[in-house]
Amino acid sequence: MGTGSVHFSSIDHRDRHERGGARPYASSMVRIDRDVVVVGAGACGLTAANRLREAGASVIVLEARDRVGGRLHTDASSGALLELGGQWVSPDQTALRETLDELGLPTFERYRDGESVYVGPDGTAHRFTGDIFPASPETQAEIERLIEVLDGLTAEIDPDRPWAHPRARELDGITWRAFLEQLSDDDEARANVAMFTAEAMLTKPSHAFSALQSLLMAASAGSFSHLVDADFILDRRVVGGLQQVPLRLAEALGDDVRLSSPVRRIEWSDDGVLVTADGDLEVAARRVVLAVPPNLYDRIDYAPTLPLRRHVLHQHLSLGLVIKIHAVYDEPFWRADGLSGTAFSPYRSVHEAYDNSNHGDPRGVLVGFASDARADRLLALEPEARKAAILDDLASYYGERAKHPTIYVESDWGSEEWTRGAYAASFDMGGLERFGADVRTPVGPIHWASSDLAGAGYQHVDGAIRMGRWVAAEVLQALAPTPA
């Protein structure tokens, strides 16, 4: 161990079993002893594991998938480099930017020169520049007023403690849709403002989550204005794909990252944990970190069972649903037409799209998103009919050439066995104020951390890294010897 490291001795869990534990030690199992076992090899879990190892703790990471990265996945099997999951870096994401610098990963700006496109309620495409959609003067003024009001409310929200706001119960007891209806009687203005946290971020209908949950989303990004500003929130990309972050972090851990090892059971007590995973693997440790989406917590058997409040908390968290569409063309034809590639419409199934062309690749790539009930309707179609409907939406933004990509790929994270939704978990009505203070509270030796539980950087890779750092510090404190 390096200078300044601390040694945390592991407990022999076989002694616990002999004293009357959950079950006798199975000799057929592969037995590993560590100070900490981390479940999930995404950016959060791998950040935590590296921090723990650097401090002198022994660690193993168990990952259910056959790859690292979690909701980050760069794939080139189609013939083009496509980022199937998270991909963007914004100026406020300081934890992610620090990590990129540490790992030596360069970034490049998203293409944004030219005009954007907005399709209004009548189906007409309008070109515009700036952040405010080209509606009637009255609606544009109302959008600007709503953003100003929401910026003021957002400034009052502590992203790490939104439940502490004096109006938390009130704001968590009204839907995002109903809250906006209280603020404005302009349907088009409300639809456009609602989209930035509903379809674009939480990927749920605006009647399915609270105003407080929406304000948390804005506060985690610094302001509501940041969510409206695509040039801010979708600023840069990593050359070669953002999955390189977890890939590099995993390289530093070597054989202590075990793939294709879904965790099935956690036996826990004040002494520590015994974690059972596929492959006849058992890990005895003093602490376990669950660095996976909250909707996967209950796929693990706990002995003894978790406290009742914790079970109920889990039932109030769910992920949204989104289809990410990748369309590759011989060239970025929209640029010659004076378009930036940025497009929006709360009235189309593909409610937003961007120029997603890769660094150093002359081909043009468009990326689009269809979320919540829009995704429901599209996923009910046969694949070819769904593709046709999606390309029709792209054509409404960019013209007929958009209907003829050379490569077409859909990312549906709801169908991923070890994710089952996107982009992140959010509470149902009333859940954030009721349970929010407990989402990161350990249960005995079990710790919880993921981008879903972050304050600043919530549901982004930046939040995953912040949570990885935070939970590592929490675990190290728990492992530290008690002063005499």
TrEMBL record:
Keyword Membrane: no
Positions of the UniProt region annotated as Disordered: 1-22
GO molecular function: oxidoreductase activity
Binding-site list for FAD: 63-64, 263
Pfam families according to UniProt: Amino_oxidase (PF01593)
Residues annotated to bind substrate: 369
Keywords from the named record: Oxidoreductase
Keyword Oxidoreductase: yes
Domain Amine oxidase residues, every copy: 44-476
Cofactors required: FAD
InterPro entries: Amino_oxidase, FAD/NAD-bd_sf, Flavin_amine_oxidase, Flavin_MAO
Compositionally biased region (Basic and acidic residues): 10-21
Family as reported in the entry's similarity comment: Belongs to the flavin monoamine oxidase family.
Name listed for the protein in its UniProt record: FAD-dependent oxidoreductase
